[in-house]
Every structure is written in C-alpha cells, then in structure tokens.
Amino acid sequence: MERRELIRWLVATAGLPSLHSLGADDLLALGRDVHRRSLTRSVLTRDEDRAIAAAAEAIIPAGDTPGATDAGVTAFIDKMLAHWFTEPERERFLAGLPELDTRANARAGRPFADCAAPDQVAMLTALDDEVTSLRANRGDAANEHWFAMLKFLTVYGYCTSKPGMRALGLYPLPGRYDPCAAL
C-alpha cells in the first residue's frame, strides 16, 4: 500500500470531520508535527492514559517491529485531544473510554490495563465488531463511535511516528529539498 493510500484510508475509516479537509501530504505533516511537539500531557488522567496505552499496544503490538507504545501513540492521542479535536469530539471520546474498564471488570474483574493480552484483544475485537456493524447499518455514523476514534488515532499516531514510519519502510522520506537548486 502506498503512503498516500494509507493516509486516505485512515481518514476514510475514522471520519474525523476536522481532518477530512486535509490532503494526504498535509495529514502526514500534521501527524509528524504532533509527534515532534514537546507538550506535556493535558487531557488524559493517569487511568485513561494506562487504558489507552494498553488498547493501543493491543491494536499495534510490538513484535519484529516497534509497537504503539514504542511509537509514543498515547502521548500523540493526548496531544490530538488537547489541540486538534473540538470540545464535542473530545467529550465523546472521553465519555466512551470508561467502557474499556467496564467491559474488563465484567470479563476479568480488573481494569482493562491490568487484563491479560488475550482478554484485551477479545474486548477490542468486540468493540471493533460493533463499529463494523454500525458502519454497515448507519454508514458514517460509525465514525462518531469513540472506539473508531481510538483506533484511528492509534493507527494515525503510529504511521506518522518515526518508529512507525521506519517499520513501514517510509523513513527517511524519499527525495530531498534543495532550496537553491540550479534550474
């Protein structure tokens, strides 16, 4: 898959209205810029941070290549929530996030971040199935689901991080910039 195709797919599957207007190059530039910023965490609580870190690592686990944790996806999500999402989008995402712990407590009697990896994957798969069903029945309404937002931000954060781009064979970016190149 080409880089631009991947980024277009990310926007199409997540459907964040504020990101729809960006072209593939701008979307890539935004993601890379968010990773470079040294902003402190400002939106997520410690428990939310742990739950997102566990979910992101279950979505993109480390193996032969770096996982979501290695790519700094949780910090990326916090920055996007703080500086890019609208207030209603941020509230919808944060209101749905406790569902991870609710499901985990019902299934394993502990918070999501403390569950075994197979339990985490099973819960995330069930949420993904719900979003897929919603997408089949209501189209773009699925993009409003908090889990669709989490999954999008995880993949977007990973694909625009240096470790993720290296794992995908996209770093360093091909080509170079010569401001004074001869004509």
Proportion of strand residues: under 5%
> Uncertain regions: pLDDT < 50 for 5+ in a row?
none
Mean pLDDT: 84
SSE run? HHHHHHHHHH
Distance between the termini: 33 Å
For the sheet with most strands, the description reads:
none
* Radius of gyration from CA coordinates: 17 Å
**What is the tally of helical segments?**
10
Structural class: mainly alpha
Total number of beta strands? 0
Helix content: 55-70%
In short:
By secondary structure, the chain is mainly alpha-helical. Helices cover 64% and strands 0% of the residues. The chain has one domain (3-167).
What does this structure look like?
The protein is mainly α and 183 residues long. It has one domain. Helix content is 64%, strand content 0%. The protein has 10 helices and no strands. It has helices at 3-14, 17-20, 24-36, 46-59, 73-83, 87-96, 98-108, 117-138, 146-159, 162-167. The protein starts with a helix and ends in a 16-residue tail after the last helix. The mean pLDDT is 84.
List the helices and strands and how they pair.
Blueprint: H1 3-14, H2 17-20, H3 24-36, H4 46-59, H5 73-83, H6 87-96, H7 98-108, H8 117-138, H9 146-159, H10 162-167
Helix pairs in contact: 1-3, 1-9, 4-5, 4-8, 5-9, 6-9, 7-8
Q: What keyword list fits this structure?
A:
183 residues; mainly alpha; 64% helix
